[in-house]
Design a protein that fits this description.
This protein is mainly alpha-helical. It is 73% helix and 1% strand.
Length: 531
């Protein structure tokens, strides 16, 4: 987090300089009474001075490093799509499949196993990051994830014919690395971004996940007769950990992590690399981080895993998980994972249905860009709530069309709306936590997201397949009904985190302000005073 350097009248400049001098004289201590209140209040006001575009121009170095930290998250989307797409490649089915009814097939149990292993290990990776991130920092965690991912892709690329176990472990171990990548990306973006950029950088994590070219690569190589038809798309995954490793020696460590470890000199040097030349008072920035952490620790103590489920932190933990549960229950996996299938049910030819499926990638990118762009202008809470409403209606309409044949193009709207909703979960869960529990809260969000996705991915085939429940489009009624319930919860449960600094969010949660009033509640200086 940084302090935008807005224009100030002379009196404010003088006050700021006086405050900074006090901080410089108390490098190893903490503020007390009015000094602490003045600093937190002053920085809270200054952080809201810049627009998003102005903040990108001014803090472009921090912005670019936040984008770099999210590159690893791109492997999450690529791994998910390419590993599913290679099953459609004839040579992959021939090398790993079983010959049944005059054709090579990959059994449904192994397909489910590949996906389940990846989801479970992503959750384990996120859980491990709660420890790793606090022990070796954001940079160290990225290093560990990049090394693990490189080795896991090796197992996938050099897979031996009919060795399902080798491919399973390759995907699963890579999932562990993906869990670390996603958790660290959200934490780092939230910690190094100015207030005006926080929604953009945290939401961009989801943008990196959905923005991949796997379908196009599969189209380019899938017609080959040799094993490179699937080995090349799998090998492309190496690009992401390679980028992480190349630039890792130069990335500044998160100042928030360094301050928590009481490495003040390193925290100052890191802040200078992130914000040097912007006019930011580095000493005040470090003092603000220190005071916010100490304020939280005086209120609730040092952050531990059990603290996620205690006091006001429990409410934050519930929100961090529920923003992903809401998306799963409103049918995001259902809409996005089975769009091609339902295009076919709507009457499109197989080739056209596939092209429409590829087109969803463009909608994904567009939806994410719009969702991120309007996050600061419209707010996190309104976009999330109305996105839930739209997805619920979409699922109900799919249910209607399953009874009365209609236009399958409704899926285009469904896919677009769901991707518009996507960045908000990553934005809210990264912002909602306290500074002392950020790694653990973000890890919890990733765990819940993966468990929810796993459950839906497992039950979906049984709901829609002709040899099972055969609900087909009627499953829209199920997700539409669940969508109504969770949309109501989102109205009462999801607060507006945009425009609020970390210390302000601490106050709002401590005072138990209802989610609907987060954006309008006026914080007084007396609210910041802690005895």
């Amino acid at each position: 987090m940084s302090i935008p350097d807005g224009k100030k009248p002379p009196a404010e400049v003088e006050h700021l300089e006086e405050t900074s001098n006090v901080e410089k004289g108390q490098a190893s201590g903490s503020f007390n009474g009015s000094h602490e209140v003045n600093v937190l209040a002053k920085i809270s006001a200054d952080e809201k001075a810049l627009t998003t575009i102005a903040a990108v121009r001014k803090y472009y170095i921090a912005f670019l490093w936040a984008m770099y930290a999210s590159v690893g998250a791109a492997i999450a989307g690529y791994d998910m799509t390419v590993s599913g797409a290679v099953v459609a490649i004839p040579s992959f089915r021939r090398d790993l499949g079983t010959f049944i009814d005059d054709q090579w097939v990959i059994s449904a149990s192994w397909q489910s196993g590949f996906n389940a292993g990846s989801n479970i290990f992503q959750a384990l990776g996120a859980f491990a990051t709660g420890f790793i991130g606090e022990k070796i920092g954001r940079k160290g965690s990225l290093l560990v994830a990049a090394i693990i991912s490189t080795g896991a892709i090796f197992l996938q690329f050099f897979i031996k014919p009919h060795n399902f176990v080798m491919f399973f472990f390759g995907r699963s171990i890579n999932g562990f690395a993906v869990g670390i990548f996603c958790t660290i990306a959200s934490s780092y973006c939230a910690e190094v971004s100015p207030l005006a950029l926080r929604g953009v950088t945290t939401g961009a994590v989801n943008f990196w996940i959905v923005s991949n070219l796997s379908n196009l690569i599969i189209q380019g190589t899938g017609n080959r007769d040799d094993s490179f038809a699937y080995r090349i798309p799998l090998a492309v995954q190496w690009v992401f950990p390679a980028i992480v490793l190349i630039f890792l020696p130069f990335v500044p460590e998160s100042p928030w992590y360094l301050v928590r470890r009481e490495r003040m000199a390193e925290a100052k040097k890191s802040s200078e690399r992130l914000f040097g030349g912007t006019g930011l008072d580095i000493d005040m920035h470090i003092a603000y981080i220190k005071e916010t952490i100490e304020l939280e620790e005086r209120i609730a103590g040092e952050g531990k895993w059990l603290d996620l489920f205690r006091g006001t932190d429990l409410r934050r933990t519930i929100i961090a998980g529920m923003v992903f549960v809401c998306q799963e229950m409103v049918g995001v996996q259902f809409v996005l994972g089975y769009s091609v299938y339902f295009f076919e049910l709507a009457g499109f030819a197989d080739s056209n249905a596939f092209r429409l499926g590829v087109g969803t990638m463009a909608l994904a990118i567009l939806g994410n860009i719009l969702g991120i762009t309007f996050t600061n202008h419209l707010g996190r809470r309104p976009i999330f709530f109305w996105g839930m409403v739209a997805c619920t209606i979409d699922c109900l309409m799919i249910g209607v069309l399953s009874v009365i044949p209609g236009n399958g193009a409704l899926w285009a709207m469904g896919v677009f709306v769901c991707y518009l909703l996507g960045p908000l979960g990553y934005c809210i869960y990264a912002e909602i936590s306290t500074a002392r529990l950020r790694s653990k809260t973000v890890a919890w969000g990733v765990i819940v997201n993966q468990i929810g996705a796993l459950i839906i991915q497992v039950i979906n085939p049984y709901l829609i397949n002709p040899d099972e429940a055969n609900l087909q489009g009627k499953v829209g009624w199920l997700f539409g009904g669940l969508g109504v319930i969770f949309t109501i919860w989102s109205w009462f449960g999801v607060p507006e985190t945009g425009g609020r600094t970390i210390d302000e969010l601490d106050i709002l949660f401590e005072k138990k302000v209802p989610a609907r009033q987060f954006s309008t509640y006026v914080i007084q200086d007396s609210d910041r005073a802690v005895e």
